[in-house]
Amino acid sequence: MGFARYLTLIWPGMPWLWLRGSFVGLVLALAFALAVDVAVFTTWIWSELVDFRLSLALWTGTAVVWLIATVSALTGFPPPIPHGRDAATDALFVKARDAYLARDWLAAETKLRALLDLSPTDGEAQLLLGTLLRRVGRLDEAATALETLSRSDTGAPWLPTIAKELERIASARRPAAAGDLASLPMTRDHGDPARDAVVQDRAA
Predict the structure, then answer these.
(1) Are 33 and 69 in contact (CB under 8 A)?
(2) Could you read off the pLDDT of 57-73 as tens digits, one per residue?
């Protein structure tokens, strides 16, 4: 697997696109593909319409872009995503869990996000973060985090718990929606007293 990771260096932008799903990596990979296509067309397909010096300049520019992108990728090559916890991530999780149990939501969230930066596939940490977001009332963020986890391989062991959390989020949303609907008839029936008084004066 280590050798396969380094094969992504062949194409600029691919290390970050393939290994991290980076949008910047996608843009760079597409831009390089376009540059190669233009160079190929001007060399072998439109060779009679394009001057040889222009074609050579295109290939030179493409090679320079490839060299710069490859060197940049080597200096900042994304490390492999860890599976499981090491001592550092395990200590972070324990601190995040303790902060959660102490209802120190800010400290718990900060430590969980730091843990997920180090280990993005930690399903237990993602689940705890989603639960925390629900507890503090950030229901949309919580639902998004939990639904994303449920669709990933790391969420498979936690599917029953994720389903219960999503049910709690749905239950928390229902009373607010019912309250909003209940207030509409009151507004419509009673109207604005000041406005009604003006209408009655004019009618008289």
Answers:
(1) no
(2) 888 988 988 888 888 77
Question: Look-up: residue for tokens 């993602």?
Answer: 126
Terminal-to-terminal C-alpha distance of the chain: 88
Question: 21 lies in which domain range?
Answer: 2-75
**How many folded domains does the chain comprise?**
2
Rounded to whole angstroms, what are the CA distances from 51 to 54, 60, 119, 132?
A: 5, 14, 52, 63
The pTM of this model reads 0.51
* Angstrom distance (rounded) from CA 146 to CA 112: 14
| Residues with Cβ within 8 Å of residue 185, at least 6 apart in sequence | none
Tokens in use for 54? 């222009």
Tokens of 112: 């969980």
* Radius of gyration from C-alpha coordinates of the chain: 28
Same domain, 71 and 129: no
